[in-house]
Amino acid sequence: xxxxxxxxxxxxxxxxxxxxxxxxxxxxxxxxxxxxxxxxxxxxxxxxxxxxxxxxxxxxxxxxxxxxxxxxxxxxxxxxxxxxxxxxxxxxxxxxxxxxxxxxxxxxxxxxxxxxxxxxxxxxxxxxxxxxxxxxxxxxxxxxxxxxxxxxxxxxxxxxxxxxxxxxxxxxxxxxxxxxxxxxxxxxxxxxxxxxxxxxxxxxxxxxxxxxxxxxxxxxxxxxxxxxxxxxxxxxxxxxxxxxxxxxxxxxxxxxxxxxxxxxxxxxxxxxxxxxxxxxxxxxxxxxxxxxxxxxxxxxxxxxxxxxxxxxxxxxxxxxxxxxxxxxxxxxxxxxxxxxxxxxxxxxxxxxxxxxxxxxxx
Length: 362
Prior knowledge:
This protein is α+β, with helices and mostly antiparallel strands. It has two domains: about 5-135 and about 305-360, 3-Layer(aba) Sandwich (Aminopeptidase); about 140-285, 3-Layer(aba) Sandwich (Aminopeptidase), CATH 3.40.630. The protein is about 40% helix and about 25% strand. It contains eleven helices and 14 strands. Strands 1, 2, 3, 4, 5, 6, 7, 11, 13 and 14 form a ten-stranded mixed β-sheet that branches. Strands 8-9-10-12 form a four-stranded antiparallel β-sheet, sandwiched between helices. A hairpin with a 2-residue loop joins strand 9 and strand 10. Helix 2 (about 40-50) packs across helix 7 and helix 5 (about 155-170) packs across helix 8 (about 270-280). It is globular and about 65 Å long. It starts with a strand and ends with a helix. InterPro entries: Acyl_CoA_acyltransferase (IPR016181), BioF2-like_GNAT_dom (IPR038740). This is GNAT family N-acetyltransferase.
C-alpha cells in the first residue's frame, strides 16, 4: 500500500504503547468501546489460538491502524476469535484509506472471513455477503428510563417480575450477583450451555478447548476495557441461571447465557437478564449488545438494532480458490434457509430432534 507499511506481530508482541494507541485510535473513530475490539481481547485470543496475528499499519513510523486476525492453511484468514467474537474489523485512524486486498497481501493472507463485521468498516463492506440485525439495549438514561419504555411497550416486564416472585415463593430466596467470581457457577453455566447445544443439534462450543480456555482467561482478567463478567441468579442458594460475557467501561456483550432446565417454568433466564440490565446500568454500562441471531426475547428487550455483516475478502490465487470451494456453498445454503422463515423453522425442529436422539438415555 503506497505510503504505508504493515508490520505483522503476534498479539503478545504488542507493547503497552500499542495498547494505548489502539484505544486512542478507537476513541478518535467515534466507534463504540466494544470489548471484542479492544487489544486485550486480541491478546487473550492469542494465548489460546497460535495463528493469531495483528497487522500494524504505520505511516511515517507511527501506528495508524491495527488489523487483528487469525491465519490458517494456505493463508486463509479469519477475524480474531471467529465463531465467538461478536464484533470484528480493523481499528483505523479517521481518514486512513486502504485497499482490503492489499492489506491481506501485506499480511500474507489469501482470504479474510468475517461474520460480525461492525458497521463503518469501509475497506471491508464491499465484500459483505449479508447484512444482519444485532439488537441492543440502550441504558444511557439509566435503568428506570429503560424500564418505563419496556412497560409502555408490553406487559413483559411485569410478567418477568411475577415469575421472580413465584420462584422465591416456591423454591426459596432469590439472590442475584452481578459480578461473581464463583468457579462452580461458571462450570454450571458451561454445562447448561453444552446441554443446550446438544438438545438443539448444534455444535457444542465448549467442546472446543480453546473456547473454554478463552472464557477462563477472561473470567480471571481485571482489565477495565475488556474483562469477563459472570452474573448469577440463585434460588435457595442454588444457581438457576447465569450469564458470562465481556465488558468494557461502557458496553457489555450478551455472550453465553444459560439456565437450569429444572427451573424452566420460572423463566430464570429472563429474570437474570432483567436483573443484569439493572445492575449494569448502575455500574456505568450504557449499552448491552445482545448479539446477532434471531430470538424472541431479544425482540422484547431491545431498544434498537445495530448492523453487522458476514462475508469475506478473497484474493486471486490458489488460497482464494480453496476458500471459495470450501466456504461459499455452505454460506449460500445457510442464507437460503435463513431468508425463508418456514424452512428455517423446519431446520431448527430437525436439528432439535437430532439432538434429542443423541442425548444419553438414563
